[in-house]
Every structure is written in C-alpha cells, then in structure tokens.
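User: Show me sequence and structure for the first protein, then do the same for the second.

Assistant: Starting with the first protein.
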Amino acid sequence: DLNEYSKQLKNRWPDIEISSEDDPNAYYILHWRIRSENYDMDGSLNRTLQVIRLHGDFSALAEFAIWYRSLIPLDYKLIFYDDLYYFHVYLEKGTTTDELIQNYKAE
C-alpha cells in the first residue's frame, strides 16, 4: 500500500519530500528525496513494489536498507546491491548498517 509506505517514510524522516507518478506506464511510481545534515539520498519504488532504487551517500543508503528490512516480514528475502550487482548482501534480521558499510569497503 503506497499510502502506508509513504506514512512510514514520513514517520522515519519527517522532512522527506515524496511524490507519486501519475503515468500508468512509469517504471517507478513513488519517488522521495531526503536532504539533511546527515542525509543525502534519493529513492524510487518500482511499480511491482519489489524494487527500490537508491542514490546518494552510501552510509545513508545502508541505513535506509536496514530500516526497510525492519518493515518487511522475514519470510521475504531482501538483497542490497549496487547497479552492477558487483556488491550484494542479503539483509537478514540482525544485519547492521556498519556491516553493510564494512562489506562495501571490502569489495
């Protein structure tokens, strides 16, 4: 549910800018931007609700991924990866932001 997802985003990042896509053929249907002292990130949710595209500071992306893992039932596997799938990590229940950052630096 896009409304619930938008609400969760706003609860976590109150200053977030969110927009939805009206074009029925658009690949991404929800877009957001988070800009603050600690964050610089853009994101989009795919029409299938199964893909999120993120762009920005890696530490912000890693934190977002861990937050997102907390919303999704553990029955669903989540993979955090770069655009070439060179770097990828399965997001498990106990995965931390620091682990993602360390794994990324090790690649």
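Switching to the second protein now.
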Amino acid sequence: EALASGCRVVTTALPGVMEVLKEYDTEAISMVSPPRLLGQDTPHPEDAAGFVRDLAGALERQILAARESPEVDRQAVAGLLDYYSWPRVFARVEQVYRRALGHEPH
C-alpha cells in the first residue's frame, strides 16, 4: 500500500515480507533484520538495542532520501503493484469462491 501510494517502505525482514519483496531491488524499500525472539513476540534482550538502532537508521535513510528525491521509482516495483492491485486481488478471491461453489468459469 505504501509503494502504491508513492511512499518509501521500512519493514522488518520477516518471512512473509521477504517472500513478497525480496526480488525488488529498489532504494524505496529498506528491510531491517528482526531481533531473535523469545516466544512469539518478545525480542531477545541482547538484540533489542541493535534492532532499535538498525530500525532508526533505516527510517533516517528513507527520510533523507525522500527529501532529496520525493518521487519513488514505481517502475522498479511495477510487477508488485500490478499483482497486488485491487482488481487483480479481487479476481483471485473471486476465483477461489467460484471454485469452492463449483462454478469454475469455462
């Protein structure tokens, strides 16, 4: 959504995020390695400060980049934006419902 709106992205490099964004090499996307976790969502105390530092650095770099060049190169992520556009997402959801109801288009 951020990229589609022309905004830069700072994200944690979680598996789902990596799956979607890994092939897009653009300065508009900054990925920060997550800290090790204790359980589902508790950062390992030894990693917390480094994660905060890395996240702050990524945010600062994107803010400075936006000041220098406010426009995001949407061509670099055109395939991603097309795949996740509402018409394309809706078409995939509709296809799932049609299959579930046994109404496959012929």
